[in-house]
Amino acid sequence: MIRTIILASLLSFAVAASADAPEGFEQANASAEAQIASEPEASSIYAEAWAAYNNEHRLDERDGCYFKADGELTQILELDSSGKVVGYYADKENGRAQCWRQTYMGVVFPKPPFAPYWHKLVMH
Q1: Is 70 exceeded by the pLDDT of residue 3?
Q2: What percent of the chain has pLDDT over 70?
């Protein structure tokens, strides 16, 4: 009986957690845009810290992703409270998106001011 209750509790927690995750790029982008609109100063300050870390470690250059496809690519990174990239969403599925997904997933950036934190990148 107790085992059933524990299993049911864990299952309901997993379903609730997955319900919060965006279903795709459009929802992740809407979350990023809403965050920028509601927290412009915090978002701007963190974007600078994020860029400094990214540039210091040359993450965007590390795997040669720029050369995997042509054209603009918009990416949304979902960061947890520790700064770890736990979600990756792109407006296109091409070689660049696949490459940067592998590059960024799991990387721990500086701690964001709140979580989830949605970091929007537009690559040219």
Answers
A1: no
A2: 85
